[in-house]
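Submission sheet (multi-component)
Chains listed below:
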Amino acid sequence: MKSEELRVKSDEWEIGGKTLKSRMLIGSALYPSPANMEEAIKESEAEIVTVALRRQSAGEGGGNNFWEIIKELNINVLPNTAGCHSAKEAITTAQMAREVFETNWIKLEVIGDQYNLQPDPFETVKAAEILVKEGFEVFPYTTDDLVVAKRLADVGCKILMPWGSPIGSGQGLMNPSNLKAIRKQFPELKLIVDAGIGKPSDAVEAMQLGYDGILLNSAIALAQDPVKMAKAFKYATIAGRLGYEAGTMQKREFASPSTPTVGTPFWHQFS
Amino acid sequence: MIKVSVNGEIKELQEGLNVSQMIEALNYKTKGFAVAINTTFVPIAKYEETIIKDGDTIDILAPVQGG
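Outcome: structure written.
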């Protein structure tokens, strides 16, 4: 396993102007404790961690303890616009995040439905267009709709993050054929499966589709042992990528023996 | 005095304060947050020249965990 890991790690890739080795993006929420979060992120070897902005209470530390831990990890920070319901809210949040986190990266999330937290495609595209013009590297969270993906690409997004299934549901990839179609139509874009990944095999599946990476949070943070699960996802991401690069065999309708038939013992021709 | 909403709570402030003075008056920390007034971002460079008005809704945001 160690040699495999090293080989994959030499396979660097580029996203948002950065060269990375890990293809896994990890969230920082929902862990049993800050120490557990820190350990899980380290174990995952992820090089991008998602963070958010929320109202600060006067006179308090206001989340700075959390932010100190993240800063010490010395990895790339991807702020999100979680909780925004309009392009205007998302744009303002992105601008605030750029100042606080000192990055032009933004995970654009504009929620259109409270029940399944489905992104609002119209507001997402509207916000993406303005943010790209303002110099942001936009990581838009979107559904697996091909036309929405096209609109986001049209307004200048170089990265797309279609969902596997609704946020925090752990249902895995609901519609692999749609995800496949997006991959096929946009070979030049960086594609990340964001949301819905529940178990390591979901990560393998996403990577085998040729996606450039996966973004997950709940699947690790809500596992019985988040640190061990972070490790499992690290290997799953590597395995899926290797599987994609190696090229899987064609499926066959019928069985086909793998052991040679020539020289099979106990078979004799009498007539 | 004027009334403003800060992070969802009604506060009374002296009239004519700029953003820096408001932050000090409300006892917010001086670093690691960003400010929006009436859903519009106010960058640090504009703190001195931006005067808080009666009825303004102010959001002061800081880093937290996110997915």
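Remark: Chain A has a mean pLDDT of 93.
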